Amino acid sequence: VFHWTGEAEAIEVLAEGDHDSSLLVYTPSGDYICNDDTLPGGDNLNPSLVFETPEEGRYVIYVGSYEPGEATNGTVTITENIEMVPITLTADEIAGEE
To answer: What is the tens place of the pLDDT at every residue in 38-58?
Structure first.
C-alpha cells in the first residue's frame, strides 16, 4: 500500500521476481488495473504498470503468480522514471535453461 501525493507526469509500478508474476493495483478512484507481462510476446515475464497524471490517494498493490499456488519472491518498485523497465525474466530462465 502506498499513498501518493504531489504532482508527476506519471508514476510506474514494477514487480521483479523469480517466477512469472502478475501485478494488480487498486487505485484511489476504485479501479483495478492489472498486468501480466511487461513486453508482449512473453519477452519479459515481469509486470509493470504506468499511471499517467496519477491521482492523489491510496494505491493498493497486489503481486501474484501466474501459476496457481506458486509463490514468488521479488521486489516492487514505485518510480516517476517511466523509462525504467523490470529486469528481463524469460520462460527459459524460469525453466532453468539459461
So the answer is: 766 667 888 999 999 999 999
